[in-house]
């Protein structure tokens, strides 16, 4: 991680009405892939909403390249350099793949529909299909491709592997690695620990609305006691399940 982080979150506080979900949350990241994991109800999706402007924070700061973006509208945050791949994808089911990408296509941008098709050849084959007729994996590719067209410095992905077949998760993992190599940072909020670790070597653990711990992904996978303590999966003494270890109820 660089001394001048791309994203810095300081003392973030946010919630819904009188219910405070995030309290004194902080972390930093550079141009890298970072995972956010934790038990269900710890505030991971609330953090996504606060970062991209859907939920205005009630305290703290969010800085992108040293500039404050907390309190801005989602549109301004997107223009500042953060794109969002939401849980559930939120596509327009009646629009085709082409139409989804055309909405955000702009001249002079690094990412174009052609570049998205090159990254996801399957979308090129399905570009005249409506969003509602795509498989779950194809929909996720389209959601990622749509985010890329914003030419963001950071992409926030909320539960990107949810409901996907292993082969499509492999594509998603390769995509995250490709983006980081191309200079795009990725923040991954994941339900499946194994998928999260494959995507991101740094894992931040959320507990009760705060970042409670940080681990190298491999360490978290190899330590059932840590999984039990922070994620509520497995037991403190049993070895990790080679097929499903690390799947949280987040």
TrEMBL record:
PROSITE patterns per record: ABC_TRANSPORTER_1, ABC_TRANSPORTER_2
GO molecular function: ATP binding; ATP hydrolysis activity; branched-chain amino acid transmembrane transporter activity
InterPro entries per UniProt: AAA+_ATPase (IPR003593), ABC_transporter-like_ATP-bd (IPR003439), ABC_transporter-like_CS (IPR017871), BCAA_Transport_ATP-bd_LivF (IPR052156), P-loop_NTPase (IPR027417)
A Pfam family annotated for this UniProt entry: ABC_tran
Domain ABC transporter, first and last residues per copy: 7-233
Keyword Ion transport: no
Any single biological process term in GO: L-amino acid transport
Keyword entries, A-Z: Amino-acid transport, ATP-binding, Nucleotide-binding, Transport
Family stated for the protein in its record: Belongs to the ABC transporter superfamily.
Protein name, as recorded: Branched-chain amino acid transport system ATP-binding protein
Species the sequence originates in: Glycomyces harbinensis
């Amino acid at each position: 991680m660089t001394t001048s982080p791309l994203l810095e979150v300081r003392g973030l506080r946010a919630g819904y009405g009188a219910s405070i979900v995030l309290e004194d949350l902080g972390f930093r990241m550079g141009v890298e892939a970072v995972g956010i994991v934790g038990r269900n109800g710890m505030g991971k999706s609330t953090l996504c909403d606060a970062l991209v402007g859907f939920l205005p924070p009630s305290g703290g700061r969010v800085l992108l390249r040293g500039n404050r973006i907390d309190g801005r509208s989602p549109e301004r945050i997107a223009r500042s350099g953060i794109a969002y791949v939401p849980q559930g994808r939120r596509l327009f089911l009646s629009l085709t793949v082409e139409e989804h990408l055309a909405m955000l296509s702009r001249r002079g941008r690094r990412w174009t529909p052609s570049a998205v098709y090159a990254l996801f050849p399957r979308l090129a084959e399905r570009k005249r299909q409506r969003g509602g007729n795509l498989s779950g994996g194809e929909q996720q590719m389209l959601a990622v491709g749509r985010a890329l067209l914003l030419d963001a410095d950071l992409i926030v992905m909320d539960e990107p592997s949810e409901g996907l077949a292993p082969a499509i998760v492999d594509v998603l993992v390769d995509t995250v690695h490709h983006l980081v190599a191309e200079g795009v940072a990725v923040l991954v909020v994941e339900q499946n620990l194994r998928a999260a670790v494959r995507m991101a070597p740094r894992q931040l653990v959320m507990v009760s609305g705060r970042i409670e711990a940080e681990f190298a992904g491999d360490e978290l996978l190899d330590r059932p006691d840590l999984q039990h303590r922070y994620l509520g999966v497995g037991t403190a003494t049993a070895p990790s399940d080679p097929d499903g270890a690390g799947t949280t109820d987040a």
